[in-house]
Design a protein that fits this description.
There is one protein chain. The chain is of the alpha/beta class. The chain has one domain: P-loop containing nucleotide triphosphate hydrolases (Rossmann fold, 3-Layer(aba) Sandwich), CATH 3.40.50. Helices cover about 45% and strands about 10% of the residues. It contains six helices and five strands, in the order E-H-E-H-E-H-H-E-H-E-H. Strands 2-3-1-4-5 form a five-stranded parallel β-sheet, with helices on both faces. Helix 5 links the parallel strand 4 and strand 5. Helix 1 packs across helix 6. It starts with a strand and ends in a 7-residue tail after the last helix. The model has no long low-confidence stretch (mean pLDDT about 95).
């Protein structure tokens, strides 16, 4: 089973790419499961009003769904990883204290369960969907925290493999399932 996480700030197209990627991989004959936008299910306040419990709930729910869906899939596509979910905690609560240390260690450990981290860049302002913050500063702050969390730890030759760019779903599918040309 391969596990792919599309990572980065909110409002950058992860959900759209996730659905398109699921289709592209299904067309290659693989069984695909998809996890999208867990934060929308969260019973706690989010954005600037988020509590530590909100982040604990989101991270725990992400892991629960990954475990459940992995059993039914050749490929699991996650619209976010636990580590970029953790970026939102860092933005509000900083990088110190017992809770930070525990979540940091746990999210770092769980990140090793992914095969691919595909980092999508900021491309346009987030649209107003009545849920996500449309504050450009907030979006940029999460992007900077993601830089700190991903850029220094992961690369194309690490596990998980990490690439960053404005990739289409077909380009990502081709990275994961390269086309073999036979003569």
């Amino acid at each position: 089973m391969k596990k792919i996480a599309l990572v980065g700030s909110h409002g950058i197209g992860k959900t759209t790419i996730a659905y398109e990627l699921a289709g592209a991989i299904k067309r290659r004959g693989e069984r695909v499961e998809l996890i999208t936008e867990i934060a929308r299910e969260c019973p706690f306040p989010l954005n600037d009003q988020a509590t530590p419990e909100a982040f604990q709930w989101i991270i725990a729910r992400q892991i629960q769904l990954e475990i459940e869906k992995a059993a039914r899939a050749d490929v699991l596509i996650c619209d976010r990883s636990v580590l970029d979910n953790f970026a939102y905690y860092i933005r509000l609560y900083g990088r110190s204290g017992d809770q930070y240390e525990a979540l940091s260690r746990f999210c770092s450990y769980w990140t090793t369960t992914y095969d691919w981290l595909i980092r999508l860049p900021l491309a346009a302002p987030p649209s107003d969907d009545g849920f996500r913050s449309t504050d450009l500063k907030f979006q940029a702050e999460i992007d900077e925290i993601c830089d700190a969390l991903f850029e220094r730890r992961y690369g194309s030759d690490t596990h998980p493999a990490y690439i960053r760019g404005a990739y289409s779903a077909e380009q990502i599918a081709s990275l994961i399932y390269p086309v073999v040309n036979s003569l």
